[in-house]
Amino acid sequence: MADSSQYLCLVVEQAEYLLPSVASVAIEQRDVLTADNGLGAVVAWRQTRQGRWPAYGVNASFQVSRTPQWQRAVFLGTGSSVVGLVADDVRLLGRTDLHVVPFTPLGTPPTRFGHLFNAAWVDGQRVTLVLDPNGLIGFLRGLGGTA
Amino acid sequence: MTAAADDERIHSLEIPLIGTSLLVPSAAVAEVTNPFDLHPVPGAPAWLLGVIGWRAQAVPLISFEGMIGQAATSVQPSSKIVVFYPITGRRESDFYAILSASEPRPQSVSAATIETEDPTRIPDTPLIAAGVRIKGRTLLIPDFDALRAAFYP
Q: Top-level CATH class of B9-151?
């Protein structure tokens, strides 16, 4: 279960997902990233002193998508394994606003790193899923395109 | 079998599915409710239809038909959501729900009122523990241990 004090709300094609803010190593505006004009899952790169970090594009169903309207990228991971996810918008939410509960998606995880989600914000009948940083990193790296 | 055993009744719930029905102990069911906001879960199998917010918990909603190899169902106007208590050994918050094709029906069953169904007439899947016949209709009894293994591999 996510246990951070704050969450980032990522808007991806009108769907909202939360990410523990402590998992993020950087949040960048689109205009400071280098666009990747290929056909793969990487839509942009962040240059660093040690190299470059890929930012992946997915749609609301987490299928590869080169949606044009993204404005920001959230990067997570450590060392040379930092990866990013682009989003239409990224907002910081305080924990006091949220009722976050454990949630385990059923069935086989999409990657060997586990499920994409490990908790959920439940507000009445509305549910916003909380991304598991390790599951997300594994999922994004599995999309390839960084060679 | 003794007369006392014959008279031992189990309060159960018949859950209509598309093309068949499940029979489950009423004690396993927390609530039957009308469908409401269903939120998709990316990366999940097709039989996981989504998640609902119920009693401050995030409850996954499954298509049992999809789990046994048939086409996964979707919410229809006649659908109901049957919320189950967590399977033995799981967290007390691990409720799950099955999409019912229509309103579930209570059944009070005993050895005298049911017959064992011919195994060749029930789906060949470990998710079904047995099939029974009640008043000429076939009802499938889910194997909750197998469900747990499928839910939490």
A: mainly beta
Mutate to test the interface with B, among A108, A127, A129, A132 (most CBs of B within 10 A): A127
CB B40 to CB A125 under 8 A?
no
Q: What is the CA radius of gyration of chain A?
A: 15
- Condensed to tens digits (0 to 9), the pLDDT of residues A1-29 reads 444 569 999 999 999 999 999 999 999 99
DSSP letter for B98, please. E
Alpha helices in B18-138 (DSSP H): 64-67
Q: Cβ of A124 under 8 Å from any chain B Cβ? A: yes
pTM attached to this predicted model: 0.91
Structure tokens at B65: 């038909």
pLDDT band at A80 (very low <50, low <70, confident <90, very high): confident
Instruction: Flag if B52 and A125 touch (Cβ within 8 Å).
Output: yes
Domain ranges for chain A, please list them: 7-142
* Min Cα separation B59/chain A (Å): 8
State which residue of chain A sits closest to B150, comparing Cα positions: A107
Q: What is the pLDDT of residues B68-106, one digit of tens each?
A: 999 889 999 999 999 999 999 898 999 999 999 999 999
Taking CB atoms and an 8 Å cut-off, how many pairs form between chains A and B? 76
The alpha carbon of B80 is separated from its chain's Cα centroid by a whole number of angstroms, namely 12
The strand ranges marked E within A1-147 are 6-12, 15-20, 24-29, 34-35, 42-48, 51-56, 72-76, 83-87, 89-94, 100-102, 117-123, 126-131
Q: Which residue has the tokens 């609301």?
A: A60
Structure-derived torsion over alpha carbons of residues A20, A99, A10, A29, reported in degrees to the nearest 10: -60
Task: State the DSSP string of A73-116.
Answer: EEEE-SGGG-EEEEESEEEEEEGGG--EEE----SS-SBTTB-S
- Give the distance from residue A86's alpha carbon to the nearest chain B alpha carbon, in angstroms: 16
